[in-house]
Write a structure and sequence with these properties.
The chain has 119 residues and is mainly β. 0% of the residues lie in helices and 55% in strands.
Length: 119
Amino acid sequence: QVQLVESGGGLVQPGGSLRLSCAVSGSIFRSADMGWYRQAPGKQRELVAGITSGGTTNYVESLKGRFTISRDNAKNTVYLQMNTLKPEDTAGYYCNARYDSLYGTRIYWGQGTQVTVSS
């Protein structure tokens, strides 16, 4: 059974930093493309950053330079380093895994971790 567990969220002042972690249980991690999404109240969930199983990264254009996604295959964990945080970054942040199995594409989500940027 695959489970994704996010951690690292919290309250931070504008200009501060946070690092989110997503630990993935099960055997799919090395073969899975991973992503971080966020959802603010009243808004749709949006992609923040993604990293393929091979390590290729992509970012939403507006966040390039402030957010960095990385993965540690030895720890089955994907990270999101967030710097120079702004109040508009306040949202629930969700980890996503996309895995192509013999039976089709499987998509898994974590339960989310809240990030609040406020003074």
